[in-house]
Amino acid sequence: xADNAIAGNRIAxxxxxxxxxxxxxxxFKENKWKYVMxxxxxxxxxxxxxxxxxxxxxxxxxxxxxxxxxxxPWVGFxxxxxxxxxxxxxxxxxxxxNISIWSMVVGFPAPIILALLINEIHNKFFKRVVQTVSYxxxxxxxxxxxxxxxxxxxSDGLIPDILTHIGIARTNLLASPGAFVPIYVLSGIWxxxxxxxxxxxxxxxxxxxxxxxxxxxxxxSRLQQMWHVTLPGLRPTIIILLILRMGSLLSxxxxxxxxxxxxxxxxxxxxxxxxxxxxxxxxxxxSYSAAIGLLNTLVNVTLLLIxxxxxxxxxxxxxx
Amino acid sequence: MKxxxxxxxxxxxxxxxxxxxxCNSKSSAxxxxxxxxxxxxxxxxxxxxxxxxxxxxxxxKATGVNVNWxxxxxxxxxxxxxxxMTTQKQLPDIIWYQLMDKSEQYMKQGIIRDMTKELPxxxxxxxxxxxxxxxxxxxxxxxxxxxxxxxxxREKPEQATWAGPSxxxxxxxxxxxxxxxxxxxxxxxMEVFNKVYGAKMAYTxxxxxxxxxxxxxxxxxxxxxxxxxDNGKVKFALTQxxxxxxxxxxxxxxxxxxIDPDVATLDAQGMQNKVAxxxxxxxxxxxxxxxxxxxxxxxxxxxxxWVAAPYPNQADGKAPSAIFSEAMYVNGxxxxxxxxSGKKLDEAYKWLDFPFTKKGNEYWNYGPEGTSWTMKNxxxxxxxxxxxxxxxxxxxxxxxxxxxxxxxxxxxxxxxxQRQSPDAFNASKTWYANNSEAQKEAYPTxxxxxxxxxxxxxxxxxxxxxxxQEHCLKFLNGKLSLDKDYDSFVAxxxxxxxxxxxxxxxxxxxxxxxx
Lengths: 320, 515
Description:
Strand order of the largest sheet of chain B: 2-1-3-11
Number of strands of chain A: 0
Helix content of chain A: over 70%
Number of helices of chain A: 17
CATH architecture of the largest domain in chain B: 3-Layer(aba) Sandwich
Distance between the termini of chain B: 74 Å
Distance between the termini of chain A: 52 Å
Number of strands of chain B: 14
Largest sheet of chain B: 4 strands, mixed
CATH architecture of the largest domain in chain A: Orthogonal Bundle
Shape of chain B: globular
Oligomer: heterodimer
Helix content of chain B: 40-55%
CATH class of the largest domain in chain A: Mainly Alpha
CATH topology of the largest domain in chain B: D-Maltodextrin-Binding Protein, domain 2
CATH superfamily of the largest domain in chain A: MetI-like
Largest sheet of chain A: none
Strand content of chain B: 5-15%
Radius of gyration of chain A: 27 Å
Radius of gyration of chain B: 25 Å
């Protein structure tokens, strides 16, 4: 009985849990080197991502650099109200969506297609040449690339030269609102398609070659192999990249637009980030542009979460 | 464990280094030399720092005041650099920046001091200069009569008209055309240039192209919002019928193919390419672009010769209603921090008063006497050291003169005569010519708004500017019709608060006139 009681007691009364400090100590002792390895990145995020968040307080202020966050007067939601009353608000939101959706619809599949094509090349030398040539533009500075685009599209440039041959009147393409988004999207693909395809090529090399063998034995054509073996093998990579891309849907390449747009294309090219730049940096309207930026980020996070949910539901592989 | 120690060491060293540099910046601010934070008078690009710049080192010798200069990093946005600088607890002793627009706010925020009481005693030469030129004094004080900065002025008004139309003189001569003087003649020249050489008119979106040919129509703006004063009444240029006439003419040029189709996206570099390829025969530019084009033409062994053309007269022969011109003063100037006191304050005033003394004026314009210049027949003349320098004269001058672009004190006309090519020097004269009346109608630069006014005006004009730029381009290329869409354009501006903005400008102007 007594023994039983003692045994029962042992089961019923667990040992007192070690305190949080003790557990941390123990954990730290065990994983010392992992902590050391993680330290730089923790510092990085603390300094460059979390500390600046304090500055977000300025969206509720009429911020003046001299007075600082502690001294500037509080104005509540005035900056947000101003944005919703801004005659340009709807336009910049619409343009942002327009440009990023087009870049996504046309730009996202492009590297996948290129990777699939490169994968089908069997001549090793030719394969390398194609790869090198296609990812070379990635290393050209954006500023240089944009001035090339400007030269190619101005009224006496290469592209209007070609277009006149098929009967399209010679104009400055960059100054015509209808051509801005295509120029933006296509030049983006030109610059990054090769580089972006690298990650897919890496994923492709990870697909078990036995799968192809058995597909061939079953009589699958090359196209069928691509459809039934290659693409399913790429799916996790594609989904993760798609989710990441969705998260930055509203953060379209600000520098590139800034380098390419002009007053004649504001109607299609002025996006949230360029507007924030003009307001915040050029006009020193810090609080207002911070408020717009915050709204932008909120939408981004929402989109990220939605895409992740959809991906989880449909394919079972989400990011978090 | 060793690795752990090493990592600690590295981190420690990093912390120490940042700590030390922080200490460094504090100690240099605390030492005896005056600190000057400036967006002007940057040392010549041929020297590594101002310590090797003869102008800056010589200035310390000439004034007996040691100064520690600081400029924003090259290529940095000046406004942003200024805002960043004002976040410091310890401000520089002297701040040399575009202080005029928000002088009152800067004083209220404790960035610059009210000099009113101290000026007459501590800076007698500047004070006397202001008494002699009441028009300048008016711009150097706020509506409440507080003096806030040491300014920069021009000896002659043509120094302020440094941009305008220029034309290929060699083509004019080859086609036996005389210099055009009115819109009819200009249109003819453009047609000939286009027919014979396939060349067009071009311009960039720079702010000095705010007027262009508008003055010949009695208008006061080209493609950007602009205000002018008509008998004490502030008016917005783009809502006047004259502007509509001007725009109609520009549109007719565009449809005839006389204006370069790339003007909407053209920058200085793109323009220079077109000039080099003989694709343009008429440009709007500054005195220095004339020099740039002519030098490039000489190097390319081309016969191209660019000269300035006078702003065209109105149809009835009257002088143009508006030309591009800055005021005789500029919005940039040097203020003193309110924290400076005692001996340092006296030194700051002495240093800033120097450009307004006779000696100081010569120094700021030409550099140390005997080194870079000597007096010849009563006129300061650059020596061979400058004129025959291996660096080239234009670059050599940047080592010695402080008044090339914007400076302190008065820029001598003689300085421009000596440093500019004859084509560039004559350009300013040509553009100014008989246009003294046109300058009088310009909205004065010295007007300042109150804190509340400037915030409201900024909110309105930020959106208005974009709106106007977009619509002007559409009126130019015909995507919008002046007959049909002009009224809705004006209505659109009014909806964005144009009337309120005009009222603010009027109030500010009235206060300025009462100063």
